[in-house]
Design brief:
Number of strands: 5
Helix content: 25-40%
Distance between the termini: 40 Å
Strand order of the largest sheet: 2-1-5-3-4
Order of helices and strands: EEHEEEHHHH
CATH superfamily of the largest domain: [2Fe-2S]-binding domain
Largest sheet: 5 strands, mixed
Structural class: alpha+beta
Strand content: 5-15%
Radius of gyration: 15 Å
CATH class of the largest domain: Mainly Alpha
CATH topology of the largest domain: DNA polymerase, domain 1
Shape: globular
Number of helices: 5
Length: about 160
C-alpha cells in the first residue's frame, strides 16, 4: 500500500511502486484527466506537477512520488470540475479556443500552471518555453499562448 498526496489529499493506493504514475492516476485513483499520448515522454499529454515541477507521468514510477505532492489537471479546479468551479487558466483556455481535441489540454494546463506560479507576468517567449514539452496538433500554439497570457492578467488583478 502506497500513501500519496494527490491534488492536496492523502490517498492510499494498492499498487506496485514500479507502476507508472500515469497508470495509477488513471486506474485505481480514477483521475482520467491526465492523458497518455505517446507513452515515451515526448508529447507532454501526461504532464503533472510533482512538488511543483512539471513531469511526464508516463516516465515516473509511483514509488518515486511517495511523500511528494502530485497535482493533476483535476486539482486545478476549485471544488470540482463543473464549469463554475474552473480556475482562471481553465476558463481562458475555453474562452480563447486553446482547448480543442482534449488530448494535450491537461498537460498544457498543468505546464502553464507551473509557469504562472513561478512567473506571474510571463512574456510570450516564456510562455512558449514553458509549454515547449507539450505537443498540440489542433490549435497551433497562438491560442494557447493567448489563453495563458490572459490567465496571468486575470490572476494579477485578483491579487
Amino acid at each position: 500500500m502506497l500513501e500519496l498526496d494527490v491534488n492536496g489529499k492523502k490517498v492510499n493506493v494498492d499498487a506496485s511502486p514500479l507502476a507508472r504514475l500515469l497508470d495509477v492516476l488513471r486506474g485505481p485513483l480514477g483521475l482520467t484527466g491526465t492523458k497518455e499520448g505517446c507513452g515515451e515522454g515526448e508529447c507532454g499529454s501526461c504532464t503533472v506537477l510533482v512538488d511543483g515541477v512539471p513531469m511526464n507521468a508516463c516516465l515516473v514510477l509511483v514509488g518515486q512520488v511517495e511523500g511528494k505532492s502530485v497535482l493533476t489537471v483535476e486539482g486545478l479546479a476549485v471544488d470540482g470540475a463543473l464549469p463554475e468551479h474552473l480556475n482562471h487558466l481553465q476558463r481562458t483556455f475555453i474562452d480563447h479556443g486553446g482547448a480543442q481535441c482534449g488530448i494535450c489540454t491537461p498537460g498544457m494546463l498543468v505546464s502553464a500552471e507551473a509557469l504562472l506560479r513561478n512567473v506571474p507576468k510571463p512574456s510570450d517567449d516564456q510562455i512558449r518555453e514553458a509549454i515547449a514539452g507539450n505537443i498540440c496538433r489542433c490549435t497551433g500554439y497562438q491560442r494557447i499562448v493567448d489563453a495563458i497570457r490572459h490567465a496571468a492578467e486575470l490572476r494579477g488583478r485578483d491579487q
